[in-house]
Write a structure and sequence with these properties.
about 475 residues; alpha+beta; five-stranded antiparallel β-sheet; three-stranded antiparallel β-sheet; about 55% helix
Length: about 475
């Protein structure tokens, strides 16, 4: 079943501490390999440089010393030599972006998550350091701030205070060994580019096609679910959030199966989810607990649209694959896709029928008033709850159908289906043209093979008998 790749980027405020954590066997129970493109002292010098530049800029917040990528790998990659695998993935980043890295290959404690931690520098070493020489004596106070006169760093007895510093004329007061930070790493689309790049690299080494990964399309019809880390204090909240996002994705699949246009789905997502979230943040601030109700409303609107479209197209759906297909190479793929299409349509009709049944019961429940109908109200509530559970399971099954055939979602399947449908239409047109021109159908590949076998069989039957040669005559 196709799944999305997982690649995450974080900013590091203590790069040396992080390096020790990911590369130390004392800290990592399942550490398989560590690979470095430069000496360990590089990171200490980098941290000092970043802090010096950060102080100069006067920026508030924390200094970013480096960045880290976490790259999830398929479990089948445990078959590859760890050292070689880590080197390939680390060198790939260094060759692509020209910056030094240190990486470690890990498993989590349960050995269910095989992944790489890749720390990289946003700066590169200069070929020639840039040195600044003092043209006069320079004075620095305890905090490292440059002051104008020597008096400002003297104590009451006229001695230089502790931790104050004097740089004499002709001495180097600043030595720059790193370049400025590469702006590419701050770009909004950098992580998307890295995800696509590493997903392609992973897929090159995947031996089983079913384990190939894909990059989740940001800005598409679907909502991404969030990865929940171990001991996350907000795990329950995130699980509920993911459940709602999954329900939206299942409803999108069903909308596509029904025939709702992508533009209409995107409009509902924009107006009912994206815009409402922005509005909620502006009014109430960051309150993730409101997301569930926002997505729930969007699902209700999309389901209403599905019902309207389904009522109009229910009769046409049965006619799509009513005629028998011939076993031509052009038709084989289309026939297979039509079978999947038919399963989706049947599942969608079954869901619609249950929803109609639930709606009728809800109407009856609203009309069942009074003390004498209490028992009936209880029965109706039980029946409605049962129907809702069945509908929920059937919606999950609808999304699973295309995944069982190797498609990540309904959108991907329908792209393949419509492409095959167009190709099959072209084939049928060429077939009609042949018949009009020659008065008969062209011989199919199946018929050609059958005819060829018959010719061989007839030749074998009519060939004169000759006894086998038992030996060379003398």
């Amino acid at each position: 079943m196709p799944r999305n790749s997982f690649i995450q980027m974080t900013k590091l405020h203590n790069v040396r501490g992080r390096i020790y954590y990911i590369s130390s066997p004392k800290k990592q129970e399942n550490l398989y390999a560590v690979y470095e493109t430069t000496e360990r002292s590089f990171w200490s010098d980098l941290a000092k440089c970043n802090h010096a530049e950060f102080k100069k800029s006067g920026t508030e917040g924390k200094c970013i010393e480096a960045r880290e990528l976490i790259i999830a790998l398929p479990e089948s990659f445990t078959e590859y030599p760890p050292d070689k695998l880590l080197q390939i993935f680390t060198d790939h980043f260094r060759q692509t972006y020209g910056t030094d890295c240190i990486a470690a290959l890990h498993h989590n404690k349960r050995k269910t998550n095989y992944h790489i931690h890749l720390i990289f520098s946003e700066r590169t070493l200069l070929e020639q350091p840039i040195e600044k020489v003092a043209t006069r004596n320079m004075f620095y106070d305890e905090k490292g701030n440059h002051v104008r006169t020597k008096k400002e760093i003297l104590d009451e007895d006229g001695n230089i205070r502790k931790r104050c510093k004097v740089i004499h004329k002709g001495e180097v007061y600043e030595r720059q060994i790193f370049s400025i930070k590469d702006k590419r790493f701050k770009a909004e689309n950098f992580l998307d580019t890295v995800k696509q790049d590493y997903t392609n690299l992973i897929n090159q080494y995947v031996q089983n096609e079913k384990q190939r990964l894909q990059v989740f399309e940001r800005g598409g019809m679907y909502l991404a679910t969030k990865k929940i880390g171990k001991n996350n204090p907000k795990a329950a909240e995130m699980e509920a959030d993911n459940a709602k996002r999954t329900l939206w994705n299942q409803t999108v699949d069903r909308a596509i199966v029904t025939g709702v246009a992508k533009s209409e789905i995107m409009q509902i997502k924009k107006e009912r989810i994206t815009d409402r979230i922005a509005e909620s943040v502006w009014i109430y601030g960051n309150r993730p607990n409101l997301l569930s109700s926002i997505i729930g409303t969007a699902i209700a609107v999309l389901e209403l649209l599905i019902s309207k479209v389904l009522l109009k197209t229910l009769e046409l759906a049965d006619k799509v694959i009513s005629k028998e297909l011939e076993a031509e190479p052009e038709a084989v793929s289309y026939k297979h896709l039509c079978e999947i299409y038919q399963k989706l349509q049947e599942q969608n009709k079954a869901i619609f029928a249950l929803e109609k049944q639930r709606s009728d019961l809800e109407i009856e429940l609203s009309d069942s008033k009074g003390i004498f109908k209490a028992k009936r109200r209880s029965e109706l509530s039980t029946e409605i709850a049962g129907l809702e559970e069945r509908i929920s399971r059937m919606k999950v099954r609808l999304s699973q159908i295309v995944k069982e055939y190797g498609y990540p979602n309904a959108e991907a399947f329908y792209k393949a289906f419509h492409k095959a449908e167009t190709a099959y239409g072209d084939y049928q047109d060429s077939l009609k043209n042949w018949e009009q021109q020659y008065g008969e159908k062209p011989q199919s590949l199946h018929d050609k093979l059958k005819s060829k076998k018959q010719d061989i069989k007839e030749r074998e039957l009519t060939r004169p008998y000759s006894p086998p040669n038992r030996g060379r005559s003398r």
